[in-house]
C-alpha cells in the first residue's frame, strides 16, 4: 500500500484543480503543477515569492488579509483575470477559494488557494511544461578492487575534481560513511547474475560537501571493470525533503479541515481517510471496498458519478442528501492514475437556508394570490412584471404587456400618469380610477427596488364598489336615525293633541244642533284617522323596543295571509301565484313579517295593470332563506332605485313613502336584507333571512 504522504503529494500534483499553499504573509510555499501551468511557470518559480509580486491587486490583497484576520474561508465566483505575464491568453474567468489553516494556537499558519478554470473557450491543448530537467550522466570506470580507472568530464565537473586527482583512487573513499553499507561491494558476483544494479548514495565533492548521486553499475566482464553511470539527484533529493515536509503539512491540513476527505485506489479500496472521515465512518478500515462497505450507494448517483470520473479522467461534482449521515453534501471527485480523491463538503445549512427561502417565496406567492384585491408589479416602462390570481381572473395573463394597454386599450402611456411620480420621486401614492372592466378602483402604489437594482412599483387595486355601497347604506341609516328622532317627537307632541281633537269632534257631531254638519264632522274624523295611520307607520320606523323573535315557518305565514292577499288581488282584477319550496323554521317576528309581506304585495299590485300576476316564491340557498316577490309592472326608475327605503320617498299620488321604509326596518330587525332586481318586465324584491338556531332578542338600541 502506498505511503499516504506520497499519495497525497501525487494527488496534490495531479489534481485537476489548481492549488497553491501560501504562508500567512502570502508567500508561496508550494504549488501544484496545474497552478504553475496556468501561468506558464514552473512549480519552482513560486516557492519563496509573494503572491502579489506575481499578481498585484489591492482588492484581492484586502480579501487575503480579511481571511487571515477572520479565519473564515472566502469564495469568489466568476472572477475575471488577465495574466499580465501571459497577455496572449486574454481574459480568463475563475472560481477561487481561499481557505485558512490554523495551528495549535488557533493562528492562521498557511493558506490554501484553489482555482477552478471556468473560461468558456478553454484551449484544447496546453503546452506541457517541463518540470524536471535531466542532468548529463556521470561516468566512472573502476576495476574489481574499486580503483578508479577513468572518469568523464560530467563526473569531474559535477564533483569539482581534476582528472589526475581521482584516477588511481578508490571510489569507496568518496562515499558518505552512512551510505557505505548501501554500496554494493560484491558487485562482481551480483552482476554476474543480474545485468545491472541501481543504488543511491552521497558522494563527496572536492569542496567537501556531499551530493546525492543515483548510480547504476554495469559489469564489463571482458575488460574486468565496472562502469558506474551516475546522475546528480541532489536537487531532487532536496525537493523530496521539501515534498516530505509539504506532505506532512498537507496531511495536517487534511486532518484539520472540517469536511470529509478520503482516497480510493483503482479497485475502489480506501487508501486514506482524514480525521473527520474516520469519525464519520468508524466502520471503514483502510483497504476495504467502498461498494462493499456501503452497498446502498450502488443504486445512487454516487456510483454513477464516481465511475464517470474514473472512466473519463475528469473531475466531477454533485450535491446529494446522505441519509446515513443525515446531511446534504457537496461531493467533489478528483481522478488520478492512482484512483480517486473525494472531498465531501457539508452544505446542510445552505440547503436549509435555500429551502427556507423557497418556502418563504411560496408563502408570499400564496398570500398574494389569496388576496381579493388586484396585486401587480409595474416596471418603469409600464410593463406588468407580475400579477396575482385575482388580477389574471379579471384581466387575463399579462405577458409583460403595459398597463395602459391592458386597462385602457391604449397604444401609448396615459398623459399625466400618477405612477410617474412614484418612479421619479420614490414616493407612495394613491388614486382612484375606472378601469376597462367598468369597475372603480382605489389604487395604492409603493416603490421598491428589484435585486438587480431595477426600480419597480407594487400596486394594489381595491374594488371600491362595496365601499360605496356601504357608504350609501350608512347614509340611509343616518336618514332613518334622523326620522326616528323626529318620529319620537311627533309621537308625543302631535298624536296626543290629535286624539283630543278627534274625541271632541265625535262629541260635537252627536249634538242635534250640528246634525246638518255631520258629513263634515265625519270627513274631519276620517282625515284625522288617516293622519294617525301615517304617524303609526312613521313611528314603526323608530321603535326601540326589543323585537321578540321566535321559531316560525315562512311558508305557514304566507299561507295564512294568502286568502286576504288573493281577495285584494281579485278586487283589482289581478292574480297572486305561490311557488313555495320546503324551508326550515327560523327565528322571526310573525307580526312584523306579515306586515312586510302585505306592504310588498300591495306595492306590487298597485304597480301592475289589470290582468297582471304576482309570484311569491320561497327557497333556501346556502345559509339563507329567500322570500322573492315578483310583479309584472313597468319597473322602478333608475333615478330612485338607490334611494329605496328612504322615508317619504314615493311615486304614488296618495302615497306616504313609508311602506318600503317600514319593510327595510322590519327586515333589519329580523336578521334579513332586501335586494331589488328591476327592469321593464317587472320588479322582484328578494328578502334574504339568515338561518339561525339560537333564539334572539334584537334591540335597535343595541344596534
TrEMBL record:
Spell out the reaction equation it catalyses.
Answer: ATP + protein L-histidine = ADP + protein N-phospho-L-histidine
Domain (PAS): residue spans on this chain: 124-194
**Which parts of the sequence belong to the PAC domain?**
77-130
Protein source organism: Desulforamulus aeronauticus DSM 10349
Mind telling me what this protein is named? histidine kinase
Question: For this UniProt entry, which residues form the secretion signal?
Answer: none
Q: What PROSITE patterns does the database record attribute to this sequence? A: HIS_KIN, PAC, PAS
- Cite the Histidine kinase domain residue spans from the record: 489-693
Q: Which UniProt keywords apply?
A: ATP-binding, Kinase, Nucleotide-binding, Phosphoprotein, Transferase, Two-component regulatory system
Instruction: Give the EC number(s) listed in the UniProt record.
Output: 2.7.13.3
How would you classify this enzyme at the top EC level? Answer: transferase
- NCBIfam families on file: sensory_box
Q: What are the recorded GO MF terms, alphabetically?
A: ATP binding; phosphorelay sensor kinase activity
A GO BP term, please?
A: regulation of DNA-templated transcription
Q: What lineage is on file? A: Bacteria, Bacillati, Bacillota, Clostridia, Eubacteriales
Amino acid at each position: 500500500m502506498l505511503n499516504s504522504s506520497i499519495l497525497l503529494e501525487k494527488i496534490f500534483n495531479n489534481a485537476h484543480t489548481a492549488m497553491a499553499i501560501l504562508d500567512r504573509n502570502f508567500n508561496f510555499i508550494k504549488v501544484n503543477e496545474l497552478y504553475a501551468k496556468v501561468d506558464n511557470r514552473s512549480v519552482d518559480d513560486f516557492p519563496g515569492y509573494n503572491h502579489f509580486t506575481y499578481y498585484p491587486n489591492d482588492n484581492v490583497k484586502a480579501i487575503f488579509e480579511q481571511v487571515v484576520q477572520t479565519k473564515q474561508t472566502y469564495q469568489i465566483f466568476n472572477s475575471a483575470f488577465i495574466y499580465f505575464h501571459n497577455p496572449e491568453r486574454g481574459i480568463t474567468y475563475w472560481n477561487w477559494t481561499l481557505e485558512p489553516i490554523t495551528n495549535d494556537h488557533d493562528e492562521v499558519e498557511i493558506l490554501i488557494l484553489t482555482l477552478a478554470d471556468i473560461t468558456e473557450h478553454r484551449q484544447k491543448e496546453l503546452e506541457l511544461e517541463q518540470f524536471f530537467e535531466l542532468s548529463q550522466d556521470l561516468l566512472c570506470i573502476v576495476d574489481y578492487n574499486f580503483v578508479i580507472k577513468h572518469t568523464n568530464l560530467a563526473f569531474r565537473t559535477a564533483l569539482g575534481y581534476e582528472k589526475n586527482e581521482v584516477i588511481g583512487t578508490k571510489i569507496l573513499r568518496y562515499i558518505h560513511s552512512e551510505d557505505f553499507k548501501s554500496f554494493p561491494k560484491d558487485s562482481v558476483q551480483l552482476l554476474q547474475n543480474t545485468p545491472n544494479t541501481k543504488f543511491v548514495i552521497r558522494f563527496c565533492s572536492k569542496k567537501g560537501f556531499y551530493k546525492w548521486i543515483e548510480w547504476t553499475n554495469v559489469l564489463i566482464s571482458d575488460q574486468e571493470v565496472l562502469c558506474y553511470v551516475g546522475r546528480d539527484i541532489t536537487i531532487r533529493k532536496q525537493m523530496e525533503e521539501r515534498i516530505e515536509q509539504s506532505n506532512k503539512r498537507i496531511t495536517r491540513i487534511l486532518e484539520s479541515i472540517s469536511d470529509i476527505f478520503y482516497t480510493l485506489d483503482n479497485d475502489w479500496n480506501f487508501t486514506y481517510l482524514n480525521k473527520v472521515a474516520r469519525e464519520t465512518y468508524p466502520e471503514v478500515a483502510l483497504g476495504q471496498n467502498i461498494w462493499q462497505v456501503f452497498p446502498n450507494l450502488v443504486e445512487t448517483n454516487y456510483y454513477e458519478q464516481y465511475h464517470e470520473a474514473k472512466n473519463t479522467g475528469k473531475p466531477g461534482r454533485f450535491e446529494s442528501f446522505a441519509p446515513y449521515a443525515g446531511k446534504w453534501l457537496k461531493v467533489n471527485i478528483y481522478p488520478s492514475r492512482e484512483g480517486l480523491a473525494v472531498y465531501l463538503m457539508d452544505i446542510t445549512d445552505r440547503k436549509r437556508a435555500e429551502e427556507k427561502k423557497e418556502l418563504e417565496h411560496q408563502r408570499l406567492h400564496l398570500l398574494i394570490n389569496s388576496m381579493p384585491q388586484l396585486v401587480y408589479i409595474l416596471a418603469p416602462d409600464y410593463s406588468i412584471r407580475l400579477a396575482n390570481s385575482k388580477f389574471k381572473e379579471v384581466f387575463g395573463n399579462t405577458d409583460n404587456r403595459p398597463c395602459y394597454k391592458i386597462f385602457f386599450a391604449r397604444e401609448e402611456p396615459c398623459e399625466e400618469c400618477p405612477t410617474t411620480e412614484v418612479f421619479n420621486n420614490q414616493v407612495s401614492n394613491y388614486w382612484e380610477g375606472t378601469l376597462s372592466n367598468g369597475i372603480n378602483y382605489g389604487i395604492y402604489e409603493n416603490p421598491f427596488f428589484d435585486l438587480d437594482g431595477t426600480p419597480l412599483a407594487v400596486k394594489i387595486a381595491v374594488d371600491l364598489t362595496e365601499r360605496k355601497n356601504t357608504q350609501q347604506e350608512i347614509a340611509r341609516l343616518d336618514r332613518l336615525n334622523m326620522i326616528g328622532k323626529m318620529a319620537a317627537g311627533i309621537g308625543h307632541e302631535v298624536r296626543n293633541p290629535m286624539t283630543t281633537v278627534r274625541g271632541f269632534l265625535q262629541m260635537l257631531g252627536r249634538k242635534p244642533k250640528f246634525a246638518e254638519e255631520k258629513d263634515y264632522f265625519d270627513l274631519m274624523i276620517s282625515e284625522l284617522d288617516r293622519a294617525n295611520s301615517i304617524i303609526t307607520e312613521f313611528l314603526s320606523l323608530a321603535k326601540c323596543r326589543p323585537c321578540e323573535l321566535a321559531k316560525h315557518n315562512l311558508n305557514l305565514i304566507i299561507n295564512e295571509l294568502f286568502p286576504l292577499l288573493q281577495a285584494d288581488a281579485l278586487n283589482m282584477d289581478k292574480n297572486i301565484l305561490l311557488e313555495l319550496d320546503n324551508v326550515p323554521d327560523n327565528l322571526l317576528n310573525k307580526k312584523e313579517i306579515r306586515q312586510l309581506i302585505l306592504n310588498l304585495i300591495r306595492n306590487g299590485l298597485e304597480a301592475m295593470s289589470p290582468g297582471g300576476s304576482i309570484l311569491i316564491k320561497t327557497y333556501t340557498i346556502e345559509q339563507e332563506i329567500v322570500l322573492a316577490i315578483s310583479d309584472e309592472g313597468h319597473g322602478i326608475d333608475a333615478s330612485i332605485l338607490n334611494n329605496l327605503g328612504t322615508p317619504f320617498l314615493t311615486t304614488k299620488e296618495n302615497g306616504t313613502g313609508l311602506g318600503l321604509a317600514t319593510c327595510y326596518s322590519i327586515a333589519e330587525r329580523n336578521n334579513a336584507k332586501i335586494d331589488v332586481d328591476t327592469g321593464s318586465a317587472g320588479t322582484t324584491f328578494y328578502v334574504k333571512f339568515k338561518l339561525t338556531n339560537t333564539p334572539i332578542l334584537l334591540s335597535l338600541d343595541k344596534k
